[in-house]
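Recap from last week: sequence in, structure out.
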Amino acid sequence: MAPVLPFPPRLLAEQLTQMDVELFRKVVTFDCVQAISTLRSEKGKEHLAPTIRAVITQMHRVSNCVMATCLGDQSTTASNRARILEHWVEECQVLLNFAALHAILSALWSNSIQHLKQTWEEASSVL
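Predicted C-alpha cells:
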C-alpha cells in the first residue's frame, strides 16, 4: 500500500520535535511574563515577547499544515484522510512532543475536520 503522505511518521515527529526544542531553548523568562499582558493583537506591540511569538507561530504553522494535508485534495477518501490524521499523531505521542501534539489536536478540533464524519469513523482509537 502506498504511503498517504510522502514522509514516514517517525521522521515527521522527529523533525517537529527538533524544531520545538530549538524554539523552547530560546524562550526567555521575561518574554513569558511580558506575553501574559501584551501578546494580544495590540498594534505597536508586535516586537514584544519575540520568543513566545515564535512558539505560537510554529504551532499555527503545524496546525495549518495538518489541515492542508487533510483537506487539500478533495479526491482523498475517508479512509486515507483517517490514515493522514493518524500519521500526524502517532509518533508525536511516542516522542512525548506535547507542543506538536497540541498544534495537531488544534487542527483536528477545527470545524473543517470535525465535520468529516466518515473520516472519524475510519480513524483508529489513537485519535
